[in-house]
Amino acid sequence: MRLTIFGAALAFVAFTATTAHASCPTPTLTQCVDATYRAGSCFPTHQTHCTNLINSDWNTQVSALPQRYRVMPSELGSGIRRVGVQPGLLPTGTNTSGHLTLVDGLVSANQVLYRKNFANLGPDELAHAAALNAWAQNGTTITSCREYVHEKYLDYATFEAKAGKHGYDARAIFNDAYASNGIAYKKLYSKSGTELARIFDGVKKAEKNAYFRFVPGPYPAGQQPYTFSQTALKANSAQGRQFFTPTDAWHAQMSQTLANVNDDVLDDSNRRQQTFGDLLAARESAWKSYQSFNGAKFRPKTLEATTAAELRAIDQRIDAALVAAHAEGCLNLNQITACDWSPRRYYDMVRRELDARRQPDLTACVRLTGGDFSPTSFIRNADKLKLKNLPLKDYTLSAELVGAYLVAYGGAMDASDVPVDPATGVTRREGRYDDGGESGSRDGFGGAVSYGGGWSAEWGSSFCEAEVAIDGYGAASVWIFGEGGEIAAVSGGIRTDDENVVLNIDVRVFGGEVYTHEWNEEAELDFQIADIRLPDTRIEAKSTFIIVFVPVSIAGGIEVGLGIQFNLGGQVWRDCSINAVGIDLTGTARPYVSLGATASVAIGFPGLAAGLRGRVNIATVSLPLRGSVGVYTDGVDVFLRLGLSFGIQQRYLDGRISLFAELGWCPGPFCLTAEFTLVSWTGFGGPEVVLYDDHFDTRLASL
Questions:
Q1: Could you please report the per-residue DSSP string of 488-508?
Q2: CA distances (Å), 156 to each of 147, 152, 181, 196, 353, in order?
Q3: For the chain: N or C, fewer Cβ within 10 A?
C-alpha cells in the first residue's frame, strides 16, 4: 500500500512538472531581460536558463567591444582597468539654436550636425544645415555675420565641425588634427584663398599648467586681503607662467612624453584645472565690477567692504585648490607631470587661439551691420556713407572685403563724438544686447539660457525731463530625459522716475515668484546686495536603458545654483526753472546660474554590478553688466555720459556621464567590464567675452 501511494505521489509530481514546463516554454534572451516576464510565474522555472543566456551574450558582446583602459568609478573599486567601450549614445532630441553673437554658438551649431550625422535634426538644426549648404553654393559672397566668420576661417572651421562627431573624446580630436587631412603642420586658408595666421606662432609662451596662472589679486584700499598659504604661493611663479612655447611639434612631443599615462587620468586633471580657471575668472569678474565705479560721482557706501568679503571667499577656494594641486604634484617645476598636458588641453588651446580672433570679428560684424546684408544695407551700398576709406559700393563679395569694411566703418564710428548707431547711422540714445540659445539633448540632458542688458536715456523738449535706466537679466531652462522646462529667471535694473531713483529686482523659480523688490527713493539711492542666492534646487527624472540586454534604470538630477549680485547706486536733482538736471546711475548687475547634471543607477538584476562616473555641466553662466549712465550740466552745457559694458562668462555642456557595468564574478580573471557613455559633450565657453562696450561723454546740444 505504501508503495502504491508513494508511486502515485511521484507520478503526480512528474505530471505537475510536465504541465508547468508545457505552460512555460523556454524564454528567449529578450524575454529573460523583460521586467514583466521576470516578475511573472514562469521566470523561476527558467531562472538558471536565463542567467546562463544573459551571461553568454554579455561575454560575447563585451569581448567584441574595443578595449580601453579607464579610471573606474568608486562603486567598482576605483583604479584603472581594461574595459570594453561601447560608442556613446547618439543624441536625438537636440535642437541646437541661438547664441547668434557668440562664436561658441556657431561652433556648437556646426558640430552637432556631425555629431548626429545630419540625421534626426531639430528645426533649428535643419535650418543651419540648409544655411551651410547655401554658403557652400554661393561662392565667396557673404550673406550674414556667421557666414563671414565661418568662411574667413574656413579650413579650420571645417576641421572643427567634423570633430563634433567625437563628442567628448579629445584623443580622437587630437588624432584627427595630426592625421594627413588634419590641421597640424598645415597652412590654413579662408574660402577666398587667403592664408590664415598660424594657430601657434612659436613665440607666445604658455603656463606649465593652469595652476601657474595664479597671481594674488588686488583688494580695495584699506581692506584686509586673504592670506594665502605658503603651499599655494608656490604657484605664483614667473617661470611657471612662461614655461612652454606651444607649437604643433610641442603638442606631439608632450603626447609622446605622457604616452604611459592613461587618457582618463590626463582628462581628470584637466577637468580640475578648468574648475580652477573658473575660480580665477570669477575673481577677475568681481574685481572688474568694483572697478566700474572708479571715477563715478556716486558710490555705494559699503562697496569696499562687501567687495573685499566676496574676494576673500573666492581666494579661500583658490587656496584650497592650489593645496590640492600641490598634493597631486602639479606645482613641480622640475619635471613634466600628468597636470601639464592632455588631449583636452590641446583642443582647448587651439580653440582659445582661434576664438580670440573670431569673436572680435563676429562682434564687430554684428555691431556695425546689425545683421543686415540686404540689398539696401550700408555694407552693400557703402558709397552712401561717403567715407574715403570705403571707395567700393558692395563689400559683401568676400570675407576679406567684409573685414575691410568693418575696419574702415568701425574706425569712423569710433572717431565720432556723437553716439551714433552704426547699424542705421542714426543718433543713438540707447543700447541693448540680447541673446540666448539651447544646447544638448532634451531626451538626455539639455539646457537653454537667455540673457541681455542695456541702457537708455531719453528726454522731451526740456533737458530737465531726462530719464535714464540700466537693466540686466538672465533665465535658464533644463531638460532631463524629456522632463523639465524653465528653472529660473533673474532680472534687475535701476532707473530714474521724476525726482526718484527706482531699483527693481525679480527672481522667479519654476514659474513662481520667490523674490521681488522695488526700492523707490527720492533724490538718492544707495543699494547694495552682494549676493541674492536662492537655496539649491534639484529636479530629477528617470529613464531605462538596455545595456547589452540588461535593463538599467538611470536617475538624472539637475543641481541648480541661482542668484544675482548687485552693486547699484544713483542720484538725481532737477531745477526745471533753469532747465538744469543732474542724474547719475552707477553700478553692476550680475545674474548667474549654474546647472550641473548628475546621475544615479539602479540595477535590480542579479549578478550585475555597476557604477557611474562623471558629471555634465549643462550651463554655468555669469552675465556682468557694469558701468554708469548720466545726464548732467556743467553750468553751461548739458552732457550725456555713458560708460557701460556687458559681457558673458560661460561654460556649456562640458563633461560626460558613463555607466560601468560588470556581470559575473568580479574582480577576477574572467571578469568582463564595459563602459557605456550615456551623456557626453565637448562643451564650449571660457573666459569672459565682452559683448557690448560703449563709452562716451558728449554735449546733448550736439545731438
A1: EEEEEEEEEETTEEEEEEEEE
A2: 14, 9, 11, 9, 12
A3: N
What confidence tier does 170 reach under pLDDT thresholds 50, 70, 90?
A: very high
3-state secondary structure of 365: helix
pLDDT digits (tens, 9 = 90+) for 272-294: 999 899 899 889 988 988 887 76
Least confident of 192-201, 398-407, 425-434: 425-434
SS3 state at 81:
strand
3-state DSSP assignment of residue 102: coil
* Number of neighbouring beta carbons within 10 Å of residue 464: 18
Q: Which residues contact 10 (CB under 8 A, 6 or more apart)?
A: none
Q: Is 120 left (phi over 0), alpha (psi -120 to 50) or beta?
A: left
Contact status, residue 267 vs residue 601, Cβ threshold 8 Å: no
659 class by beta-carbon count within 10 Å (0-12 exposed, 13-18 middle, 19+ buried) = buried
Q: Which amino acid would we find at residue 180?
A: S
Torsion of CA 119, 122, 126, 131, to 10 degrees: -130
Q: Distance between CA 631 and CA 455 in Å, rounded?
A: 13
Distance (Å, rounded) from C-alpha 195 to C-alpha 669?
56
Q: How far is CA 326 from the centre of its chain?
A: 28
pLDDT in tens, 568-596: 778 888 888 777 788 888 878 777 777 77
Q: pLDDT per residue over 74-84, tens digit each?
A: 888 888 888 99
If you write DSSP's letter for every residue of 155-191 in order, what string do you get? HHHHHHHHGGGGTT-HHHHHHHHTSTTSSTT---B-T
> In which element (H, E) is residue 621 found?
strand 608-622
**Entry field: residues in the chain:** 703
* Nearest residue to 679 via CA among 659, 700, 701: 659
Helix/strand number for the chain, H first, E second: 16, 18
Which H or E run contains 645? strand 638-663
CB atoms within 10 A of CB 343: 23
Q: How many angstroms separate the Cα of 336 from the Cα of each of 212, 297, 343, 351, 608?
A: 14, 52, 15, 23, 40
How far is Cα 257 from Cα 251, in angstroms, rounded to an integer? 10
Cα–chain center distance at 657: 17
Question: Under a CB-based contact definition with an 8 Å cutoff, are residues 177 and 184 in contact?
Answer: yes
Which residues, 6+ apart, have CB-to-CB distance to 384 below 8 Å?
Answer: 378
Strand boundaries in 87-149, DSSP class E: 97-98
Measured between alpha carbons, how far is 528 from 587 in angstroms, rounded to an integer? 9
Cα(197)–Cα(354) distance, integer angstroms: 10
Q: CA-based diameter of the chain, in Å?
A: 130
End-to-end CA distance of the chain: 122
Per-residue pLDDT of 445-502, as tens digits, reads: 888 888 888 888 877 767 777 888 888 888 888 888 888 888 888 888 888 888 888 8
C-alpha cell at 113: 550636425
